[in-house]
């Protein structure tokens, strides 16, 4: 089996040697380029794993499963989701960085790929050199929500309440480097408080505890919160984008509600380990673009307050350009907020 070959070092060495020999032979045959195209012509021959850096049932998992099915259909294989939780998504990214660069392991990650370098001194990977980008997927607004019996009813009241009760109020998030952590940091900065934070392995379990009343409030993406907001299971204060979200038309923006500096939207992208052949990446990018044009995906995303990126953004180049830019932007913001 292919996966056994990849985990057996001696056999891997033999296969690499054999592949190298075949490549060298092919390169000597006139009319062939002996390059990556031979490798991609049969790709994929087996299921593809997508590592999701947060708990099942949360927003990253939801988006991955949404596009995984149509991507798998167009590739003729299954896209298998593996949730690897811990340390705000950095455990998963570290694992994906060291996977075989053959296209059979992808990573779905979000804005956290660009915030982690400023938040971790000992990050076990470099987002720019340990990965190849496949394409952007979507950009998701965040909402500020609370357990439904939490006292404040508006964002203005929330600000006043946490100022007065900062020793007791609890703020949930999905670990240092997660989107909910980033939004929570910006919120605390905007108000000028330091709250008691409660980290989870994803906002799926965090939201469950919020609904259960174990924590007071949190930021989370509309892909996770829309159902709970419209179902009245949580209290919602604002959406963190300049415009209101169509699926939540009554929810004011942070600007309307009095915190204009709190702007975050959570962009997601697909990655493969550095060294993955370009033509293998091209096959994955094409499947991603097919999935993002799928009407079922467009409708599901719209119901959850988001949309697929345009096709020209679902490319390795656009994705890398955004990643580079965002590492700079968030490095500066996080550095300044930490007094650096
Ligand atoms: C998740 O999938 O649980 C979230 O994306 C976590 C987060 O970044 O807030």
UniProtKB/TrEMBL annotation:
Xref: Gene3D superfamilies: Bordetella uptake gene, domain 1, Periplasmic binding protein-like II
Alphabetical list of Pfam families matching this protein: TctC
InterPro entries (UniProt xref): BUG (IPR005064), Bug_dom1 (IPR042100)
Tagged with keyword Nucleotide-binding: no
Signal sequence coordinates: 1-26
Keyword list, A-Z: Signal
PROSITE patterns to which the protein is assigned, alphabetical: PROKAR_LIPOPROTEIN
Keyword Transferase: no
Family: Belongs to the UPF0065 (bug) family.
Listed name of the protein: Tripartite tricarboxylate transporter substrate binding protein BugD
Annotated organism of origin: Antribacter soli
